[in-house]
Amino acid sequence: MNTAPEVHLMQVTPRLEIRNLVRHFSGRAVVDDVSLSIQAGQVTCLLGPSGCGKSTTLRIIAGVEMQDSGEIYVDGTLICDTHFRVPPERREIGLMFQDFALFPHLSVGDNVAFGLKGSKEAKRARVEELLARVDLLRFIDGFPHQLSGGEQQRVALARSLAPKPRIMLMDEPFSGLDNRLRDGIRDETLSLLKEEDTAVLLVTHEPEEAMRMADEIALMRGGKIVQQGAPYNVYTRPVDHAAVAFFSDTN
Ligand code: ADP
Ligand code: MG
């Protein structure tokens, strides 16, 4: 008797899909035919050395930089090509950067509420929910300068996630942090991201970070994605000598 479970091959529309993105600066392709797709609930790390085009790729997806060619789809709907462009503020994309500062003159709670829509009660409930999840509810009426760097980073994460973005773009979000704190914050961030229904594209130049956080790694070099797959596969079956060197370089 065949006891294998029935397999339903279902085509799931990716939350984010980019197709054949190209961007030149001074005649040089810094993003050179990049394609990727990410499902909701999945973390993909765009991993590669400094200058390989990671941030430019992220800025194009965020809508603050234009591509020369290629398309971006969210839940199967075209949001940007060379003729048509949904403005950044309507893309439902959350952003988090290394130096993505909190507003110093707003309380922690108001920082998280910034950009939220709806009734005062609904906003308050969402702010409390997120601050509780990053374990900082006690600081809701405090101010950013009263928090440590790691705590500020957790508030920034709560703020980015508050409007329930369909996509989270994170550019080296932990590189400003103390080594000592980094692993803990990576793990906390990952578990919070996993609870939210969002697709995450996280940029890093650190293999260790990608190995720790990614469901999938896209290895980038010279504007191109040279290898893509599960962390274990990318690590154990590097595509070429340069990939071996990159992974064994201890930065
Ligand atoms: P990464 O994030 O991987 O370090 P970037 O995407 O920031 O790489 O940059 C890729 C390349 O594009 C670099 O050589 C950088 O100098 C160049 N570049 C990025 N933005 C601009 C710009 N606005 N004008 C000219 N060159 C740029
Ligand atoms: Mg960068």
UniProtKB/TrEMBL annotation:
Report any one BP term from Gene Ontology: quaternary ammonium group transport
Q: Name one GO cellular component term.
A: ATP-binding cassette (ABC) transporter complex
Q: Which GO terms describe its molecular function?
A: ABC-type ferric iron transporter activity; ATP binding; ATP hydrolysis activity
ABC transporter domain boundaries = 16-247
Which domain of life does this protein belong to? Bacteria
| Keywords associated with the record | ATP-binding, Cell membrane, Ion transport, Iron, Iron transport, Membrane, Nucleotide-binding, Transport
Is Ion transport set as a keyword in this record? yes
The name under which this protein is listed is ABC transporter ATP-binding protein
Q: Which organism is it from?
A: Parasedimentitalea marina
Q: Which residues of the whole protein are included?
A: 1 to 251 of 367
